[in-house]
Amino acid sequence: MQRSAQLITAQWLITAHESGVQTIESGAVHVDGAGQIVAVGTATELRAALDRSGAAHTVVDLGASILMPGLINAHTHAAMSLLRGAADDMALSDWLQKRIWPMEAALVDESFVLVGTQLAAAEMLLGGTTTCADMYFYPKSAANAFLSMGMRAQLALPILDFPTRYAADPDAYLALGLEARDEFKGEALLSFALGPHAPYTVGDATFARINAYAAELGMVVHTHLQETAQEVVDAVAKDGVRPTERLQKLGTLSPDFLGAHGVHLNDADIALLAQNNASIVHCPSSNLKLASGIAPVSAMLKAGINVALGTDGAASNNRLDLFEEMRLMALLAKVKANNATAVTAAQAFAAATLGGARALGLSDTTGSIAPGKAADLVAVATSRVGMTPLYDPVSHLVYAATRDDVTDVWVGGDRRVTNRVLAANADRALNDSMPAVNAFAERVRALQHVDA
After folding, report:
1. Quick one: pLDDT band at residue 2, thresholds 50, 70, 90?
2. Which of 19, 74, 79, 348 is most buried, taking the most CB atoms under 10 A from its CB?
3. Which of residues 342, 359, 376 is at a domain's end?
4. How far apart are CA 179 and CA 161, in angstroms?
5. Are residues 48 and 150 in the same domain?
6. Is the pLDDT of residue 353 over 50?
7. Residue 385: is its pLDDT beyond 80?
8. Same domain assignment for residues 38 and 141
9. Could you report the per-residue pLDDT of 306-351, keeping only the tens digit for each?
């Protein structure tokens, strides 16, 4: 859709690029009518250039705000927003086997995924997340949900070796997933990955097929990896090797490999991932809540692994809030390494932006504010008492800001949040979904005897 060109100005402009994070005071971004970034610089420079060209444009002056790249949630299960608070204070194995999997078996269908994903997308957009990597069932419903909300998403097509309501066997998972990819492959906001659930739920033969499809179609392989210590113990007992080594032997590790969590990686695991230029998505809140542990993020970064940030699903977090994840990434790494410089604010910010884009294979499209990229932008107010005074805007974004400070959000140049209010079409979609959301909530309460 062609829109008017925009000149967006702010007191502070924060970019993220290969050489690090750059701050421009009194900055501006020129966005063309197709939603692409044309130029980045000071407001004075860009105003003068536009005046000389005589090109028609709309000025959006954000005043005393920080304008930054849209955040990228590189690992989530969006529809599980409907299970937020339904299974708390449990270890991962019990959480999955006693609560989550039984509830999913009873509840998850196309409608569950559609409205649950719309709810999650609204939460993420209002909190400054413009792109997510979603791994869940019924990807066609998820695709329609993200499109209805105007959010960028990469859908990891679910693959398991056991049956669910969605599919009976690996053949069916792959067929349904690739059918969804073919149906939506022309949508600019959507991309697709292969999503084997985890090494402990997917066998060697299925991974071999996934590897072949990934190579043929140029798709990311996105899987859970060494989230708990018990997962590693069980894998060694069953396979004779740790999960990362098994994936290396199978040929799954590559620059297009994305491992979620990576809490229990040892030096050998980290070396294998670095050798293959693979990515890890750090999910600190979920790992803390499920007592999975603290991932060795500082060691990963030192080894050259690309680290992204994710929230995991709302059933295990219970927030889809990347501001919280940035802060936790930096703070927990300092404790893990017993070193206050282990992960800096700039490194956490990079993980939540360009690190996520790299992990999803979308760094040519999003993740930083640069000419030629999509205008995925977020404005953060600096007027709140807790944001005053401001010396270093990147420090404030990581250590002081919250998602409630987000005022405006653009996805591909389309303003999806204005003055903390969702765009009208997204707001209508969300309101239309609420009767179904409430009906599913009643069914969850009945199944698990969860009080309102």
Report:
1. low
2. 74
3. 359
4. 19
5. no
6. yes
7. yes
8. no
9. 999 999 999 999 999 999 999 999 999 999 999 999 999 999 999 9
- The domain that holds 22 is classified in CATH as 2.30.40.10
Task: Specify the number of domains making up the chain.
Answer: 2
Distance between CA atoms of 248 and 239, rounded to whole angstroms? 13
Burial code (b: 16+ CB inside 10 Å, e: under 16) for 361-399 equals bbbebbbbbbeebbbbbbbbbbeeeebeeeeebbbbbbe
Amino acid type, 240? G
Please indicate, yes or no, if residue 448 is contained in any of the structural domains: no
Task: Name the residue range of residue 169's domain.
Answer: 71-359
Query: What is the pLDDT, as a whole number, of residue 200?
Result: 97
Calpha distance 185→189 (Å, rounded): 10
Specify the pairing of strand 20-31 against strand 6-17. Answer: antiparallel
- Rg from Cα positions in the chain: 21
The pLDDT > 90 percentage for the chain reads: 94
Q: Which two structure tokens, joined as six digits, stand for 429?
A: 């979609």
Residues near 320 by Cβ (< 8 Å), separated by ≥ 6?
Answer: 73, 76, 78, 81, 120, 123, 124, 127, 129, 311, 314
pLDDT of the residue at 16: 85
CA distances from 349 to 241, 412, 429 (A): 34, 20, 31
